[in-house]
Design brief:
Helices cover 7% and strands 52% of the residues. The protein has helices spanning 9-12, 89-93, 132-139, 161-164, 185-188, 198-206; strands at residues 31-36, 45-52, 58-60, 67-71, 79-85, 104-106, 116-124, 148-153, 167-175, 214-231, 240-267, 270-299, 303-309, 313-315, 319-356, 364-369, 372-378, 384-402, 407-425, 434-448, 461-476, 506-513. Strand 1 (31-36) and strand 2 (45-52) form a beta hairpin. The two termini are 22 Å apart. Bound molecules: 2-acetamido-2-deoxy-beta-D-glucopyranose (NAG) (5 copies). One 2-acetamido-2-deoxy-beta-D-glucopyranose is lined by residues 177, 211-212.
Length: 517
């Protein structure tokens, strides 16, 4: 699958001067941008949000528009602030066009965690105390200023769109240190010119700067299941341990980048189009070690082994992407057996690119198995039937929060690596009869855990790559392959049967299955 690009991206975008945020020019033209130059968390992200609408719908509370903020908490969201006009009446007056309440304002750096806020209330503040330096600016004006009290928040749904009109938004961002493509916010929302965000997403993804790529390196042994029990000696059977242990090593090396584009409106709050891509290379080198010496039926459930944050992209109240890399694992065993298996879950993923939701581009990448070690041994004097499945699942998770919590979903890219053992070996004095079957595989898919406006939901799944490999398949004696008999479910080991009596099991297979299988 190769995505062919027929037109240079820049031609798909309106040729305008980039609408970057400038702290020197007031946001009085019906358009305002805020750039995120650097991520505060785990690395580099470049991102920008642009809002646009009627001139009276968007105002500015920064010094560029004549305003000085007197009290404001930098890390809080919704709050009451005090502000005073030290600029011209013309500048400060923009806030009051059509009434201040319901206007979307730009806040200065260091005031509120959000770049833009709704004015929920505006009044003459009781406390008219003004610091000396600010007071000097205020008195140079024609009209004396009063200190204003202003309630700011991000409850966009409380704004009546009929008062000032619709306020559109456009967000784009990606990991790395790239220059974001130019956008013209007014044109963006004009019908036809930019009906989809696909080309903006491709522009980000093809110009990705990988000089500050976040690399994940993990190698973590983890006990996934450990249900064992010591059985006392009885008659000729010595004391022994019975049960099931499943150990995994969660091992991965991954280079991950991503980008996101969203468009819609904050008044009324709605995301009309959204796309995210993950760009990654990974070497997955997990392994699974199972020791079963019991009649048992167990499911470990999905357990978290490792988690690390990736550079986030945060425009509080508008769009927050909180990505992380994690490895979960799960084992399901339903077996009557005295067996031991160790198998690698080794894959190489090169040049992978995944777009979500579907419709923004085809997924790319080569997914191939690496050399895989396999060891399987059993006690021939005990019948071994049943199945074992173990999954080690590296995943990239994007927590997406849009428009003040209006939508909150996780988009998950799973690299599910798994091993399956099927056994139908019977007790026999002369060695094994029956069959043993070992498969491994990888299943790469992207999905969301809930609905995001009407753009995608739980049922939206992109299957990117899925393949399983027969590592070992052999029948012994004159057995023909059959499914194992139904196994009595037991969630813990018991001391009946002769499980656990052999200390040295007989090897069924041991070696390396080459990558070129
Ligand atoms: C970006 O973040 C890095 C690491 O946190 C920091 O060293 C650097 O000074 C920041 N650059 C800017 C322009 O804020
Ligand atoms: C700012 O708000 C945060 C969060 O509500 C609070 O923990 C902090 O104490 C406040 N800072 C000041 C200076 O009031
Ligand atoms: C008025 O605000 C100033 C500056 O924040 C503060 O020092 C003073 O205590 C406030 N006065 C009253 C009466 O709250
Ligand atoms: C990021 O790009 C700017 C120019 O766009 C350059 O000056 C800076 O050194 C770059 N930083 C890194 C970490 O690559
Ligand atoms: C998706 O999962 C996240 C994290 O577990 C959770 O906060 C969010 O509410 C979930 N969304 C839905 C729609 O279930």
């Amino acid at each position: 699958m190769v995505f062919l690009l027929t037109v240079p991206f820049t031609l798909l975008l309106p040729a305008v001067v980039r609408a970057a945020n400038s702290w020197n020019a007031p946001c009085h033209t019906g358009e305002c941008s805020y750039d995120l130059k650097n991520s505060t968390h785990a690395g580099n992200v470049r991102a920008s949000v642009t809002i646009s609408g009627p001139t009276s719908a968007i105002a500015d509370l920064t010094p560029a528009a004549g305003w000085q903020i007197l009290n404001c908490n930098a890390t809080d969201g919704a709050q009451d602030i005090r502000a005073i006009c030290t600029g011209s009446d013309n500048d400060c007056g923009h806030l009051y066009q059509n009434g201040a309440v319901g206007t979307v304002v730009r806040l200065p750096e260091g005031c509120g965690k959000m770049p833009f806020a709704r004015i929920a209330a505006e009044w003459t503040h009781d406390n008219q105390t003004v610091p000396e330096d600010v007071a000097q600016g205020a008195t140079r004006r024609a009209e004396p200023s009063t200190v204003r009290g202003i309630t700011v928040d991000t409850q966009w749904h409380m704004i009546n769109p009929n008062r000032h009109g619709q306020v559109n938004m456009f967000v784009q961002g990606a990991t790395g240190n790239q220059t974001l493509p130019d956008v013209n916010a007014q044109d963006l929302h004009r019908r036809g010119l930019f009906s989809s965000i696909t080309s903006a997403l491709h522009a980000l993804s093809f110009n990705l700067d990988k000089s500050s790529t976040k690399t994940i390196d993990v190698s973590k042994p983890f006990s996934l299941l450990d249900k064992t029990k010591l059985c006392p000696a009885s008659g000729l059977v010595p004391s022994r341990k019975v049960g099931l242990t499943v150990d995994v090593n969660a091992k991965a090396h991954a280079d991950i980048n991503y980008g996101v584009v969203a468009s819609g409106s904050i008044v009324p709050p709605k995301v009309k189009d959204f796309g995210i891509f993950a760009d990654f290379d990974a070497q997955l080198g997990g392994s699974v070690d199972v020791d079963a010496f019991a009649s048992i039926s167990l499911d470990s459930g999905k357990l978290m082994i490792f988690q690390a944050g990736l550079p986030g992209l945060d425009f509080p109240g508008i769009l927050t992407i909180g990505p992380s890399f994690q490895i979960t694992a799960q084992a399901v065993a339903k077996a009557q057996a005295d067996v031991k298996i160790a198998v690698d879950l080794a894959y190489n993923i090169n040049g992978a690119k995944v777009y979500f939701p579907p419709g923004h581009g085809s997924s790319l990448g080569t997914f191939s198995p690496s050399n895989t070690n396999l060891q399987l041994s059993a006690d021939p004097s005990v019948s071994a039937t049943g199945s074992l499945q173990a999954h080690v699942i590296p995943a990239v998770l994007f927590g997406v929060n849009a428009l003040d919590g209006l939508a909150n979903v996780d988009v998950e890219l799973d690299l599910d690596t798994f091993a399956e053992l099927d056994l139908t070996l019977s007790e026999s004095k002369s060695g094994f009869t029956g069959c043993a079957d070992v498969k491994t595989g990888i299943n790469v898919k992207a999905a969301a855990n809930g609905s995001f406006f009407s753009l995608f939901n739980k049922a939206t799944v992109i299957s990117i790559y899925s393949k399983s490999f027969d590592l070992f398949k052999k029948c012994f004696g004159n057995a023909h392959r059959r499914r194992y008999a139904s196994i009595e479910a037991r969630d813990g080991p018991t001391c009946d049967g002769s499980f656990g009596t052999s200390t040295t099991k007989t090897t069924i297979t041991s070696g390396t299955v080459p990558a070129s299988r």
